[in-house]
Amino acid sequence: MSTSSPVDPSPATPGAPVRVALVDDQQLVRAGFRMVIDSQPDLTVVAEAGDGEEALRVLDAQATRGGVDVVLMDVRMPRLDGLAATARLTAASVADPGRAVPRVIVLTTFDLDEYVLAAIRAGASGFLLKDAPPEEMLAAIRTVHAGDAVIAPSSTRRLLEHLVTVLPDDRPDDGAAAQARAALAALTDREREVLVLMARGRSNTEIGRDLFVAEATVKTHVGRILAKLGARDRVQAVVTAYETGLVHPGQ
To answer: Per its record, what are the GO molecular function terms (predicted)?
Structure first.
């Protein structure tokens, strides 16, 4: 998870363009996003929708035409809002692990903690404000597609300080907490060190420098952490670190 502006917005990997879907009830907003995204050789907009219900239909139809890699999802929309649509979309990957589900970046004009928390609970891999610079949005798409998570820098500090007091108390005790603690216990000492540094916002490069290991070694540890915790990406792993008490605010 990143606590600073996303990294270099230049294309991260060669190959087919990253397929992006735009979900926003304002057509002019979608047009602006499309113009910026389609200007990049490694990104392409393949689908649009004006509300959450339409988005789910469009994404399902697009699955037969190559699918979508990343969805830019607005929060406030008619019929079905972006948070509910994100929850339904990511739930599909739980019900059918073999199904390819796009990663979601939630976009909003409201820099409020509750939206950040709700987006993460819903399974989003990123959270950005609509007034973020175009290069930050482009970098976020590439970073999330690469398997990392992006949270708007202005929201990150408050989010991390808020997680430990908000997330555990308002969620039903359905055994998930015990399962998370068991998964955490399966981590090696080194993996726990890496997870703590992830929760503090360190990049793979920074973690490697802190632990005096190669970045490739860090990537291997991160992959094992995600597998053991059953996390889709880094942000979900960090939520587990806070929920289980492995990391506390101010550390």
So the answer is: DNA binding
The stretches of the chain forming alpha helices (DSSP H) are: 27-38, 52-62, 82-95, 113-122, 134-145, 153-166, 176-185, 189-199, 204-211, 215-229, 234-243
Q: Is 7 helix (H, G, I), strand (E, B) or coil?
A: coil
CA distance 168 to 245: 10
Helix (H, G, I), strand (E, B) or coil at 234: helix
CB 45 within 8 A of CB 78: no
The type of residue at 191 is: E
Reported as a single tens digit per residue, the pLDDT across 96-152 is: 666 778 999 999 887 777 787 788 878 888 888 888 899 999 999 998 888 776 776
Burial class (CB in 10 A: 0-12, 13-18, 19+), 168: middle
Nearest to 201 by CA among 168, 129, 152: 152
| CA separation for the pair 104, 49 (Å, rounded) | 14
**Positive or negative CA dihedral for 117, 57, 14, 132?**
negative
For residue range 167-226, list pLDDT tens digits in order: 545 454 556 677 888 889 999 999 999 999 988 878 888 899 999 999 999 999 999 999
Determine the Cα–Cα distance for residues 140 and 1; give it in Å rounded to an integer: 11
Mean pLDDT of the chain: 83
3-state secondary structure of 92: helix
- Enumerate domains of the chain plus CATH numbers: 18-162 (3.40.50.2300), 175-244 (1.10.10.10)
